[in-house]
Amino acid sequence: MEKADDLRLNVSLLRRKVPNLTSAARLVGLRPATVSNLCTGKIPVGRAEVRTLVALASLADCSLDDLIIRAEKIEMIETKIKTLDLFAPLAKGGTVGLVARPGMGQLVVLAELLYRLKNESYKTILLMPEGEHRGLSDVIEHAEIITNTIEETYASIASNGGDQDIIFIADRTHVITGGIQQLQENVQGIGIHSVTTFLVDLTGEVVDEDLPYGPLETLWQFDADLVARHRYPAVNPLSSTSSVLEVAHLDQEHFAIQQKALKILRRYRELRSLVNVSGIERIPTSELQTYRRGERLEAYLTQPFYVAEAFTKKLGQAVSLQDTLNDVKEIMNGAADSKNVSELEFIGNLQS
């Protein structure tokens, strides 16, 4: 018998059978947020209501045995970008959704990922979106292959034959038309499972939707407050998720540090709202330590990017996951209490 912890939803089947999962879920009385959390593993299958699983199986026109499968170990792509690797790591071969309004830095993050992963021998493909968008030129510059149609993209992937891992970026319009789902099905049909897909919406409309891309392995939610305070990359740790940790528990130390950091950052944000209104003297003495460590942790999670060096005048920094875990643990344990917040902004690791 399978243990509940070993089970997960067959996300690829759901994606293929129910492309417009948000609308479909609502029609059968399911909350899109619940479906999203089940897909990423934030809600374990073992804790899901039976009626929810039955409704999803009905939508996908499949049996529960097809819908619920044994969780296999998910391989993580280490980006050496601190906040991504710690809170919402990339699932190799999975689908990543970026949720942001224009100007929040999502295209800079994509350009940086293309730059870093191309240097790690990934083949990088960009399916050109329609129209002109500020910052898109940086993504184009760092993509190895530019395609204009789903058919061109399939031909490029098929010609690779699975010999090289692929990073593929596409606009949400191709999700709405069903093109991405068809592409993924066709690629898997010829035995290629090495394509990691990034989905982006350049209009910003996805911010107002519960499940804008359908089932995902990784979700990066960008945050207006972080942008306003120039905390880049402005990916919100509290609302970004990944099946790498939630389902696979890739590394127990990683998971434990991530959960403790999330708790501190969540409380820091609550306290920061109080400080903004009434001043720091209104924070209870017992909470000052949490506030100060949350402030330093948030500053540490900023990072200079290689593709932005000309603009920021700061050298790009790559920080290994292990260094990030060690540094975050030290900050939470008080090792950085004596440092000014400004000393932790836009650095690599604590020793840099």
What structural keywords apply?
single chain, 352 residues, alpha/beta, 434 Repressor (Amino-terminal Domain), Rossmann fold, Bovine Mitochondrial F1-ATPase, ATP Synthase Beta Chain, Chain D, domain3, 7-stranded mixed beta sheet, two-stranded antiparallel ribbon, 11 strands, ATP synthesis, ATPase_alpha/beta_chains, CF(1), translocase
Q: Mind explaining what this structure looks like?
A:
The chain is an alpha/beta fold. The chain folds into three domains: about 5-70, 434 Repressor (Amino-terminal Domain) (Orthogonal Bundle); about 95-215, Rossmann fold, CATH 3.40.50; about 250-345, Bovine Mitochondrial F1-atpase, Atp Synthase Beta Chain, Chain D, domain 3 (Bovine Mitochondrial F1-ATPase, ATP Synthase Beta Chain, Chain D, domain3), CATH 1.10.1140.10. The chain has 18 helices and eleven strands. The chain is globular. The mean pLDDT is about 90.
